[in-house]
Design goal:
alpha/beta; 236 residues; Spore Coat Polysaccharide Biosynthesis Protein SpsA, Chain A; 8-stranded mixed β-sheet; single chain; 8 helices
Length: 236
C-alpha cells in the first residue's frame, strides 16, 4: 500500500526541516511511504526552502513548486495529481510532527481490507475531536475530484473530513498514531504572520460561510457519489 503525505507550506522552511526529521525517524517503509512539500512560487522564503529541501530530497522526500492558491486548493491540486500513483493520500500542516514509530505500518493495518477509509491519529491538541492531520484512501479523491471542498481556503477542512467520513461510516480515530500539532494555541509554536492571517476572525468567518454553503448544496451529492461508487453502480 503506497502512501503519500502532502504538506502545503509557506514562509516556514525551518518547519519543513523539522518535519522531515520526524518523518525519517519514525517511518517504517521508505519504499512505499513518501513525503511531499508543496511550495508557492511567490514565497518570500523560497530560497530557504530550496536550501532545506534540495539537501534532503531522496527517494521518499520531495517537493513541488506551484502557483499560489492558498492551502485548501493547493492540497487539492496535489492530491488529485498524485491520486493515481498512491493508495492513500495524507495531509499534514507544516506544524505537525510524527511521534509514533512505524506509524505508516499502523495506518496500513487500520485501512487493510477497507473499500474506502478516512483515518486520523492523536494530534495532542484536538485529539478525537478533529482530524487536523488525516489520511484518505485515494479513491475518495478520485470520486470527488478533490480532497476537501475547493471553496475552502484553510479552515473547516478537518470538519469536512470528519463529517464526510462519519456519514459514510468510514472514519476511524487511531489514538496510538501520534502526529503532534505544534500550534501556537497550545504553546508549542510561535505566532507568525501566517498564523495571524489564517486564524483571523475574517478568515474563519469566510470559511465557515463557505462550508455551510457546501453542506447545503453539494454535501449530500458527494455522499451519494461515494456510496454509489462503493456499491459499484455509480454512473458519473
Amino acid at each position: 500500500m503506497k502512501i503519500l503525505v502532502i504538506v502545503p507550506t509557506r514562509g516556514r522552511p525551518e518547519n519543513a526541516r523539522d518535519l522531515i526529521q520526524t518523518f525519517r525517524d519514525t517511518v517504517f517503509d521508505r519504499e512505499l511511504t513518501d513525503l511531499k512539500f508543496v511550495i508557492d512560487d511567490d514565497d518570500p522564503e523560497i530560497e530557504g526552502y530550496r536550501r532545506v529541501l534540495d539537501g534532503n530530497q531522496d527517494g521518499n522526500v520531495s517537493y513541488d513548486v506551484s502557483k499560489r492558491m492558498r492551502m485548501g486548493p493547493t492540497l487539492n491540486r496535489a492530491a488529485v495529481k498524485y491520486s493515481h500513483d498512491y493508495d492513500v493520500i495524507g495531509f499534514l500542516g507544516d506544524d505537525h510532527r510524527f511521534r509514533t514509530d512505524e506509524w505508516d505500518l499502523a495506518l496500513v493495518r487500520s485501512i487493510a481490507d477497507s473499500q474506502a477509509a478516512i483515518r486520523y491519529g492523536d494530534d495532542l491538541l484536538q485529539g478525537e475531536n478533529l482530524p487536523t492531520a488525516v489520511f484518505l484512501t485515494s479513491n475518495i479523491v478520485k470520486v470527488l475530484g478533490y480532497m476537501a471542498p475547493p471553496e475552502l481556503v484553510h479552515m473547516y477542512l478537518d470538519n469536512f473530513w470528519k463529517d464526510f467520513g462519519s456519514n459514510l461510516g468510514i472514519l476511524k480515530y487511531e489514538p496510538e498514531i501520534v502526529i503532534e500539532h505544534m500550534h501556537f494555541v497550545n504553546g508549542k509554536g510561535m505566532v507568525d504572520d501566517q498564523y495571524l492571517a489564517l486564524n483571523s476572525s475574517e478568515a474563519m468567518a469566510y470559511d465557515a460561510a463557505e462550508y455551510q454553503r457546501y453542506q447545503e448544496k453539494r454535501f449530500q451529492y458527494d455522499l451519494l457519489k461515494m456510496r454509489a461508487t462503493l456499491l459499484g453502480n455509480w454512473k458519473g
